[in-house]
């Protein structure tokens, strides 16, 4: 019998561990290397403005300024999550029987796209090979993902090719630029999605920048106003404190930290290789995909039925429990990637040396193998 | 030609006025009598916890405690808005071809219910007469609204009658207890919706309590977990700063202020009658519905084509511009009620005497009549 991962319960367990650590060791004991370590850098003065009707007025003016600088376009729309924005955008423009065509460098696309397509009764097609990409008669929306969950980036040429194909048929182009809005630009010197010709783009304000979990969408005033109506109707908007967090993070955002990690990650990678491990590099760190995590564990204790998503989540939980290092599988939302990704551009990387990092990674593989061998998986994940 | 109200543009204008007043006169110059004057009573210590993954862990524990005390049930779920929770709940339990039967003391029900019913392809029926209420073969959800937008309350007997009818057929019962969770309880001594036998209830944490705009849902652990999955999948959840605001507001909530206003509103009402006006009372203040606002204006300047929702919004905008008094029509979300409702239990009522209040109401009727007479409606609403 194959066991299935209970994503709600594992997240509650992950958050419980964090809670205990904060109580016992203080919040600075946590080392958040998710690259999603968004915070709310909010002053007491900001707080006095955080009133339901007053806050939005003041902060809307500021977010327009810094948001448009960051993403381009005529107007921006702050969202409770990137997912909320994707859902609202599809609900606004895609009808039953329409098709959404999605070009992305690697499957899977963000689950919210397929999920909302299904909700409105639309077809949904993903293309990972640019040569296969096509527009059908019922295509009403083209989505492009600028980078994968694992930080692969598509080329400027591919970007333009897909946008041109869509524009020939006058079809709306939306770019899921969750971390790409910074990665593509800081590391690869690409233009903003809007400057590349897309109609709309959305970015996650907690990815590769120190903002809160949330989304920021950009586009023309007309499109943003249309989506804003849906957003208000369903309760997808970012509330004032999120907007403040986004403003602060955008004001202090600098591509330098990302560029530095881009260089240092090669040294870190070599140290892991020297330990006999087989990580993949990311632009600003390294990662182990769930299959590779299972491979390492199987090498230690032999074949087993336990699926790789469960093993990767156990790994993440143990890394948190023993080394206070936060990675996504233990605490992410349902459907989040099970890749153990270490973002060396995260500010918490200052709390740990490269050698300590490597030691934690190696030891956690040993501990994960032990847990699997002794049938303690459920205990680690849920109890 | 009848002009239509542009709800996005009027809200932007309302927020712009607020923004200017904060810049020029300071935030304390605003008098928010919406009864929705939620704030974020957050300390610097709270802020250090407002990190994406750390915050939820700490605050989830606390919101469970105070939330269950307030609403009953086994588990609570904090939401970005009440609307977000209603949408997620319907998306979780109602399928294409199902019916939602809604019992409410007065039409219209909250627009998010009909809207989400349509989104999932379900039928939607509203019953305002308890004798008409019925369950059909395809009914999969019964909704009860505990109080109307205008603060009417249904009786405990009617509550139980509808719940029993639903339970006979084993149908899920959801209570939209937006302000009812406090009004029904503090003023009318009714039990919580859950204690009345409902499966789920949701309340707005900014209505008749000093929390942020947001929603809090309660129910059994099983149901809340199911809805939480949808909530996470679409980005409907309350983020950490909202949760903190909810906790603080629930911790300091006392039904006393509501009970006091319940007595004082009679004096206020009499003063308005003495000025020749015809307000309706609410449990904690008074209100003018849009039709009555138009009536007063027509009495002053004669018949006109301008619809009453526009006149009420002009009234609200002028009350804000000239007296700094915030009411819903000027700043509410699209679809929000166009009633001018003054909540005398709002903490900002301390900033104004009863006589000043009455004077502002009377003078704003005069100013509204002038604007309508001189064809300056669009200027007041949008420019």
Overall description:
Two copies of one chain form a homodimer. Chain A has 383 residues and is α/β, with parallel strands linked by helices. In chain A, 49% of the residues lie in helices and 14% in strands. Chain A contains 15 helices and twelve strands. In chain A, strands 2-8-7-6-5-3-4 form a seven-stranded mixed sheet, sandwiched between helices. In chain A, strand 3 (99-103), helix 5 (111-120) and strand 4 (123-127) form a beta-alpha-beta unit. In chain A, helix 3 packs parallel to helix 9 (240-252) and helix 4 (82-93) packs parallel to helix 5. The longest helix of chain A is centred in the C-terminal third of the chain and has 20 residues, at 354-373. Chain A is globular and about 55 Å long. Chain A starts with 6 loop residues before the first helix and ends with a helix. The mean pLDDT of chain A is 91. At the A-B interface, helix 1, helix 2, helix 3, helix 4 and helix 5 of A face helix 1, helix 2, helix 3, helix 4 and helix 5 of B.
């Amino acid at each position: 019998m194959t066991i299935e991962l209970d994503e709600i319960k594992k997240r509650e367990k992950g958050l419980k561990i964090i809670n205990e650590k904060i109580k016992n060791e203080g919040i600075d004991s946590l080392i958040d290397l998710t690259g999603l370590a968004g915070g709310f850098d909010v002053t007491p003065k900001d707080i006095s403005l955080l009133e339901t009707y007053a806050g939005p007025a003041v902060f809307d003016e500021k977010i327009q300024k810094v948001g448009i600088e960051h993403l381009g376009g005529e107007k921006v729309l702050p969202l409770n999550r990137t997912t909320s924005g994707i859902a609202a955008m599809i609900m606004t423009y895609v009808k039953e029987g329409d098709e959404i065509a999605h070009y992305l460098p690697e499957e899977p696309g963000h689950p919210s796209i397929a999920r909302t397509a299904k909700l409105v009764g639309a077809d949904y097609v993903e293309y990972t090979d640019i040569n296969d990409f096509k527009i059908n008669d019922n295509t009403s929306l083209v989505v492009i993902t600028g980078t994968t969950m694992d930080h692969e980036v598509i080329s400027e040429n591919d970007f333009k090719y897909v946008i041109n194909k869509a524009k020939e048929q006058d079809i709306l182009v939306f770019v899921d630029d969750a971390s790409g809005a910074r990665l593509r630009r800081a590391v690869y010197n690409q233009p903003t999605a809007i400057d590349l010709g897309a109609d709309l783009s959305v970015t996650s304000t907690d990815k590769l920048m120190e903002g809160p979990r949330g989304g920021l969408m950009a586009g023309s005033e007309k499109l943003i106003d249309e989506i804003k109506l849906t957003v208000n109707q369903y309760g997808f908007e970012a509330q004032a404190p999120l907007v403040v967090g986004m403003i602060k993070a955008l004001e202090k955002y600098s591509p330098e930290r990302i560029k530095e990690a881009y260089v240092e990650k090669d040294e870190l990678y070599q140290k892991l290789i020297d330990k006999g491990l087989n990580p993949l590099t990311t632009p600003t760190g390294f990662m182990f995909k769930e299959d590779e995590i299972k491979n390492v564990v199987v090498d230690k204790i032999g074949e087993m039925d336990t699926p790789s998503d469960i093993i990767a989540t156990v790994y993440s939980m143990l890394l948190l429990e023993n080394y206070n290092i936060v990675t996504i599988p233990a605490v992410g939302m349902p459907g989040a990637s099970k890749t153990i990704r270490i973002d060396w551009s995260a500010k918490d990387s200052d709390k740990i040396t490269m050698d300590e990092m490597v030691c934690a990674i190696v030891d956690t593989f040993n501990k994960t193998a032990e847990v699997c061998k002794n049938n303690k998986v459920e205990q680690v994940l849920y109890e």
